[in-house]
């Protein structure tokens, strides 16, 4: 029997998701999506009647989420840094930790007081890092590299829809950048960093729906950092910044990898809002 009001539909869906061991709050995200309202109007609509069309679509999505489909794949988007980005099975769903990486990089850019900085985002996926930097710091020039053609197409659509000026390049990690002569003021990346042995233990919402290519960093999870670090001396400007998202147990290892290639750089492990080490910043000062 169809519930009469929004709050009744939310209560029923939240209880069902909790019984299915899913996040009950997902019911609110899905209802907001199907009502096509912002959060303020969503909260004001709780005592509104539920139409047949909304209930049918909402209940279908709730059932699919209970079965393991991520909310973002049901809605087709995720919010990142206040903007809506298209996501699908070809790209990693953006995480809040990556917003913190972007925020730290933007802070560094603003402290330079220099226009036309050259920025490179390695392994761009849906493009959230490159596009956000391009929109928040419009005087910079941004390139974004991605090995997956389908992920690259998603990033290009996001850039077009959001009006961001980003040059997208298909290729593996930093390899395409080596073909030019540009040195970069900022190189930023959220690379695959999950060790192979941890893949099967991941939450099925992640393991079965995010692309493995965007998650697993070969045997120990550090392969991409090693491959990128060897090119930093050639690609990173004097006084430039390399910034990486990491797994919360990889700070010392990634710092050691970077220090091997740039022994005089200032290298710092930074913590996220949950007090976990989730970023490594490497500021070059050797030349």
Automatic annotation (TrEMBL):
Residues noted as binding S-adenosyl-L-methionine in the record, renumbered to the chain: 123-127, 146, 190
- GO MF entry, a single one: peptide chain release factor N(5)-glutamine methyltransferase activity
Superkingdom in the source lineage:
Bacteria
Spell out the reaction equation it catalyses.
L-glutaminyl-[peptide chain release factor] + S-adenosyl-L-methionine = N(5)-methyl-L-glutaminyl-[peptide chain release factor] + S-adenosyl-L-homocysteine + H(+)
Q: Enumerate the spans annotated as Release factor glutamine methyltransferase N-terminal domain.
A: 8-76
Q: Name one Pfam family in it.
A: MTS
Per its UniProt record, what PROSITE patterns does this chain match?
N6_MTASE (PS00092)
Q: Name one GO biological process term.
A: methylation
Q: Where does substrate bind?
A: 190-193
Q: Which UniProt keywords apply?
A: Methyltransferase, S-adenosyl-L-methionine, Transferase
Record-listed E.C. numbers = 2.1.1.297
Q: Give the InterPro entries listed for this entry.
A: DNA_methylase_N6_adenine_CS, HemK-like, N5-glutamine_MTase, PrmC_N, RF_methyltr_PrmC, SAM-dependent_MTases_sf, Small_mtfrase_dom
Residue intervals of the Methyltransferase small domain: 117-197
Per the entry, what this protein does is: Methylates the class 1 translation termination release factors RF1/PrfA and RF2/PrfB on the glutamine residue of the universally conserved GGQ motif.
Q: Which family does it belong to?
A: Belongs to the protein N5-glutamine methyltransferase family. PrmC subfamily.
Name of the protein described by the UniProt record: Release factor glutamine methyltransferase
Q: What species is given as this protein's source?
A: Salibacterium halotolerans
Q: Which gene encodes it?
A: prmC
């Amino acid at each position: 029997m169809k519930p009469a009001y929004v709050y009744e539909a939310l209560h029923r869906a939240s209880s069902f998701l909790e019984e299915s061991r899913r996040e009950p709050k997902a019911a609110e995200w899905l209802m907001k999506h199907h009502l096509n309202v912002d959060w303020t109007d969503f909260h004001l609509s709780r005592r509104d009647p539920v139409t047949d069309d909304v209930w049918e679509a909402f209940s279908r999505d709730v059932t699919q989420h209970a079965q393991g489909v991520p909310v973002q794949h049901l809605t087709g988007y995720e919010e990142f840094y206040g903007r809506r980005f298209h996501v699908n099975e070809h790209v990693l769903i953006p995480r809040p930790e990556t917003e913190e990486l972007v925020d730290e990089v933007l802070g560094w850019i603003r402290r330079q007081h220099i226009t036309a900085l050259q920025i490179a985002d390695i392994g761009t996926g849906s493009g959230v890092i490159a596009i956000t930097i391009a929109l928040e710091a419009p005087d910079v020039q941004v390139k974004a590299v991605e090995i997956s053609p389908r992920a690259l197409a998603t990033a290009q659509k996001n850039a077009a829809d959001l009006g961001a000026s980003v040059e997208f390049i298909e290729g593996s990690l930093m390899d395409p950048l080596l073909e030019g002569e540009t040195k970069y003021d900022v190189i930023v990346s959220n690379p695959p960093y999950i060790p192979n042995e941890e893949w099967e233990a991941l939450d099925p919402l992640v393991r079965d729906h995010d692309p493995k290519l965007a998650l697993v960093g070969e045997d120990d999870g550090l392969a991409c950092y090693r491959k990128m670090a060897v090119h930093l001396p050639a690609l990173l400007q004097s006084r430039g910044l390399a910034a990486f998202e990491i797994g919360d147990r990889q700070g010392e290892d990634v710092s050691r990898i970077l220090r091997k290639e740039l022994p005089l750089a200032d290298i710092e492990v930074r913590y996220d809002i949950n007090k976990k080490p989730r970023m490594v910043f490497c500021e070059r000062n050797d030349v």
